[in-house]
Amino acid sequence: MTDAHETERRALDSLHRLVEKALKAGADGADAVGVFSANLSVSQRLGAREDLERAEANDVGLRVFIGQRSANVSTTDTSESAIAAVVERAMAMARLAPEDSHAGLLEPTFLAKTPFPDLDLNDPAEPTATLLYQRAAAAEDAARAVPGITNSEGAGASWWRGTAALVISNGFVGAYTRSSQSVSASVIAGEGTGMERDYDYHAAVYGSDLEDPTLIGRSAGERAVKRLRPRKMPSAKVPVVFDPRIARSLLGHLASAINGQSVARGTSFLKDRLGTQVFAPNITIVDDPHIVRGRASYPSDAEGAANRKRHLVEGGTLTTWLLDRASAHQLGLTTTGHGFRGTSGPPTPHATNLYLAPGADTPQILMADIKSGFYVTELIGFGVNGVTGDYSRGAAGFWIENGEITYPVNEMTIAGNLKDMFAALVPANDLELRYGTDAPTTRIDGMTVAGT
Predict the structure, then answer these.
(1) Is the CB of residue 140 less than 8 Å from the CB of residue 155?
(2) Is 259 exposed, middle or buried (0-12, 13-18, 19+ CB in 10 A)?
(3) What does the pLDDT look like over 409-437, one tens digit per residue?
(4) How much is the pLDDT for 452?
(5) What domains are there in the chain, each with its CATH number?
(6) Per-residue pLDDT at 79
(7) pLDDT of residue 2
(8) CA-based nearest residue to 61, from 47, 72, 50, 77
(9) Which stretches in the chain have pLDDT values below 70?
């Protein structure tokens, strides 16, 4: 196993060479980004081992600027001849590119300062394939042991470690290494036309933080069995309660709506709502890139910008957009440190660790006064219009009667408009920071529910 610091040093050396050669070739500015990763994954089904895969990848991207023209070229070869060819191609492309008045490198005043925060993102331990197989087996065995489970789609376990490095001609130099381990299981309950499937999974930066695979498997099995013999319900306007695993998708819609690119293009249903009440006064939504061992933590953004914890929504009021340099420039604002990129393209705005702050009531209290409602555990399709906020998605879950979750329902549709949904949103107190985008159990009254 290569030491993470040594990998970071080598990565930065390669990127320094790229930027220096680009400047010598006549570029007015340049940045180089590299992602150097390795992963190991296994799977098994019905008690038999299936796949064992290991992959390593070295990806490097160079972006050059000639005046207001720019181009991006990526490669997996970091040899001297390949670097020279990348620089030559990037410069040739930039000379032919159209001018963009918003193109450019981040101004030095916005750059993250060293030392970068220690977010503890790299578990030095690398699990063996044997250990990963043991985790997958434990998950699948526990799932199949649940009464009512009749088949398995399999279980898996994985490990990944990647080093990201960035060198910019404006003076920024940075690199960090992160790791991830995961376990999952997916099983089937019932027979014939009455079969239902469900799953569960968990991922963590450190293997020691990974949930017991037996619990993951048992949860997958119990979820599948609970879905047996579903009903369809007639059309109605009722309260809809989103399971935490599903409620987080609502934050994804918010993040898309406040993405600086969408706002600058005028294609967001929230484009005129900055500084106004979008949610109820008790709602807080947080984006925090500096959570220790966070699933979506970053010491800086991909343009070298300093980043920090922000309340995107405070007291129900929308306080900010998610901005990289280009979208901020278009809107006459400054970056919020949300620039993200791969090696093959320019930065785009993206959230980090995003979560809806919990409310005061338990899920049981949140549902106590619901005489008839829908508890959603699965969403199907993507019927969301980002321009108007119109929302219509297939759904499955359980019917709520007199405050209690009762029988399963499926082949349903839930519909509304995200403006109204955000205004009516009420969170419970069961928030867990588990996925990188997280929400507690969430209730929204007045949605239209229909059997399909």
Answers:
(1) yes
(2) buried
(3) 999 999 999 999 999 999 999 999 999 99
(4) 62
(5) 4-223 (3.30.2290.10), 230-452 (no CATH)
(6) 87
(7) 56
(8) 72
(9) 1-2, 452
Determine the Cα–Cα distance for residues 257 and 272; give it in Å rounded to an integer.
Answer: 11
Q: How far apart are CA 298 and CA 117, in angstroms?
A: 9
> CB-hemisphere CA count at 13 Å for 182?
21
Per-residue pLDDT tens digits for 144-184: 999 999 999 999 999 999 999 999 999 999 999 999 999 99
pLDDT of residue 1: 44
The full length of the chain comes to 452
Residue type, 327: S
Express each pLDDT in 303-319 by its tens digit: 999 999 999 999 999 99
Q: Report the C-alpha gap between 446 and 443 in whole angstroms.
A: 10
